[in-house]
Every structure is written in structure tokens, then in C-alpha cells.
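Protein in question kept underneath.
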Amino acid sequence: MANRKIKEKILNENSSFIIRLDSPEDRYLSKKFGGEYFTTKIDDGNKIYSLKNSIGIIKVGNMNYRFYSKVSHLVRVFSMLEKIHQSNYSFKKNKSIWSFDPKVLVDVENGSSYIIQLIEIYISELWKLKRIGFSKEYNAKSENLNYLRGRMLLSKQIRRNVVPKGFYCKYNELNHTTPENLIVSKTINKILLLPISNKHKNELIYFKNEFSQFISGKGKVNLTEIKYKQNRLNKHYETIIYLSEIFLKGKFFSTLENGKNLLCNFLIKMDELFERYIFILIKELVEAKYPQYCVDEQVSLNFVNKYNAVLGRDKGYLNMIPDIIIFKKANNKPIVVIDTKYIDITNENKLNNSAYYQMLSYMFSLHLQNNSSITGVLLSHGTPGNTYRINHVENDHMYIYTESIDLLSNEERIKDNLISILDKTLGA
């Protein structure tokens, strides 16, 4: 039976598309990507999928859906992902900002560029494992020893030690031979078969040797027999196992060796990517240029009380969590709050009043009154907006500065833009 011709549909990251309700395509999207990337609505036997600031490429049935960013090229998006992973920073909001399905392959433009960046991300994750620590678990081991350890295996003791000079024992040993380490080791060996740069090759050979020490006595590894299960001790392997699935997929890997422009189904949350990318850049700049300050993200502010009028008492707080706060190191005093808004303010879809009300609540909570400096920054994509002055009390004001970042620029230009913003808030 001939293959159905694949159709193409190009959408932006806030678009909608229709899938037949309870069709194989509907069940696939719900299971693999679900509510994290889409909102859905049922209408006359169909399900309308609306993207939630997500980009990527999804092949379902005979249709390729390409969800493109309104503010950045796909290769640039992968560069931002690479930057986040290279930072080794552990974000408080411990949720993945992307999802892959290595079982479904799809043609992409510049596919080789994405693969290079995926390898970069993979190597960054390897360094993260080394920094946090490679996982360990207890494994059963049987061998002939000159001392008794664990329990003696009598049948083998009789066969191996006719004249008792040793003890054939079975015991549990804590070592690095874990499912996740076996998977990563196998993946490293596979990536080394690809035409990669000398820099990548040297780093991968370093980790190949590192893992070889862990599993030197394991022999040939059959991946189908390895059962990886995430727990609190190996949670830092989550992303690298995810990527390993992509590289270890047989059909996908063979296309890489042949230099084809193929990738697998994937989606990326652009609003959270933008937030994390900007935080990493600001953190780097503050540490290098403004050492008297420090940066934190996702700080919970308990400022607004929930009040029970009937009982006449407080019942907790309205939790507020700004994206970025810059503190003075000497006294841990908040100096400026920054909130990222993944929206192009050059277009009609501009920042609405709720963004400014939200910023005001952060500023009041942090007591950010300053007569000369800007203490609140709304950061989005597009051209700069206005600066707003809030008359807090007489001769005591708050300033909200609306600034933009051009995500189509390279990293150096974005950093220059951020430095000009930091100079306005922290002083040249």
C-alpha cells in the first residue's frame, strides 16, 4: 500500500488547528504533549487545539504541523536552549520547557544545525551530571574472594574451591552500574560515530572513559533489557535520558549518519524559554559587571494577606512570584524587580494594563521606592515602551521601565541591550 502524501501546515505559536475528536491523532497529541502545550475545545465532533506560546514541529497522520516563533528563528531558539543547559543553573521551577518524541521523525530545514545544538546540550548535561554526581545503586555480585562477604554459594564453593582457599560469595555492592549510566554510556558511543567537531569529540571521549570505569565489567549492553525509573536520587538525569532516547532511536540515528535533515516531533515553551534565557544572561552580567549585587529568580513574596472578615483574622497570603529580583549583597535589600513578558510590543498585541498592575504589586511588596532610579522593568520583545512614574507618597516615587529585547539578534547584541538596562537601574 502506497504511503499517503504528507501535507504541510505552517502556523504561528498562538494559532489553532482542528483534529477529529478521539482520532489516533487526537489521542497521540493528548498523550504526548497534552495540556502543557495546548488548550483544547470540543466543537461538533472535532477538537480545536490552541497553542500556548509553543513552537516546534509535529507530524500526526499525514500532516506536518510547523509552529514557528513570531519573534525568533528556530535555530536561534535552539541556541537559547543550549545556553540554558550550558549554565548548569538549577531553576526553582523544576519543569521541562521542551518535549520530544524520538519515535516520530519529520523533515526540517537546517536539520544538521539542530543536531549540532542537541549534541552541545547533551555535553552540557554530561558536565551537569559530573557536577551533581553520577548515580549509584546496590547491585548483586558473585565472585570468588579470599574472605567471606555476604553469603557463600555452597554449590559453586564446592565446584570452584575443592581445596578451600577462598570463598565463593554473593553480595550487594554499591556502584555506578545503574540503568541511567548504562543508557548514557551507550549514547556517548553512538554520538562518537557521527561526523562531529574535534572539540565535541574530545569532550565525549573524556566522558566515555569516565563511564567505562563504572561499567567496565558489564560487557555488551542490551538496551531493551535496561529499565530506567526516575527517583529523587537520579532526577538530575531527566533531560539527558530524554535526549538519549532521541540519539538511540535506530531510524533517527541512521538518518544522522547519512546527513539527512530529519528531526523528531518536538515542542518548546517559548514564554518559559524567554524567561530562563534572560535570567541566565542577567545573572552572568551582574556577576561580571556589578559584583556588589546578586540575582535570584522565582522568589515568593508574601505581602498581600488573605483576610477572613467573618472570623476577623488572616488566613495566609496571596502568593506573588516575580521572574527576577536583583539584591544588594551587603544587606540583601531588593533593588530592582524584572518581569519578562513574551510578547512583541511592536505589534497590536501590546502589554495590557494587567502587566503594570502586576508589576506594581511586586514593587509595593518589595518596598521599591526610589526618586532617582528605575526599580521595576517589564521586559518583552520589540521596541522600547514608556517609563511610568507612580507617585507613591509626596516626593517619593516608583518608576516602571518598559524595555525590549530583540530575540532575532545574536547573544552579544542582546547582552549589550541588557547592560544598558542594568546601567539605568544599578548605575553605570
Observations:
- The CA atoms of residues 9 and 386 lie 38 Å apart.
